[in-house]
Amino acid sequence: METNKLSIEEKILKEEKKNSTKISFLSFGLILLIILASIYSLFVGAAELNFSDLLRVIFEGQRGMIYNIIWNIRLPAILTALTAGMGLALAGVVMQSILKNPLASPFTLGISHAAAFGAAFAIVVIDLSEFPLLSFLDGFYLPSVSAFIFSQLAVIIVILISAKQQASRESIVLAGIALSSLFTAGTTALEFFADDLELASVIYWTFGDPGRT
Question: What pTM did the predictor assign?
């Protein structure tokens, strides 16, 4: 019996070591891919740059149009995209830990769709001229604030559902899918009643643009 127990423990340890090795290689590969993609993003855009342009800007401190493109447009966009990606990954990990559900994420639980609806609601429905108290929120900040409020509303709904003892992992995901469908339908309805400028703003906001940072 002891021999069998030791052999089982050895198999478990070997399997864990094998899995940790795979995770290490995968993490290294993903980090390398992110670095290569970030470097590639410095050269791709409306104005194509080459490696010599990048070297002149970094080491010679050459200022001008190329300097502004790299330091004021593309590099902030790359850093914003990396920060947003890390934020989404962290949000997924936190949700999976809190809800104890490996399927939990901002997308499967309808939170991202709620944020999109909030932004569309702010663009199409809210008129700041009718709300003087909100005048400090110009057209740039209002969609983001509204998206945050509606996303938090979706989070509260999901937490209330998961707080019930009868709620299973599957029911939480199904509730998230229902929320996604509800907010997606609301966004579609707002797009239907929006004018051309509002519709373009909603679509542009939904796609996202780190280049505006």
Answer: 0.71
Query: Which tops the pLDDT comparison, 19 or 121?
Result: 121
Please tell me the total number of residues recorded for the chain in this structure: 213
Instruction: Specify whether the CB–CB gap between 150 and 118 falls below 8 A.
Output: yes
22-41 burial string, b = 16+ CB within 10 Å, else e?
eeeeeeeeeeeeeeeeeeee
Q: How far apart are CA 108 and CA 179, in angstroms?
A: 9
**104 lies in the same domain as 203:** yes
d(CA 97, CA 85): 19
Determine, yes or no, domain membership for 93: no
75 and 125 share one domain: no
What range does the domain containing 22 cover? 1-86
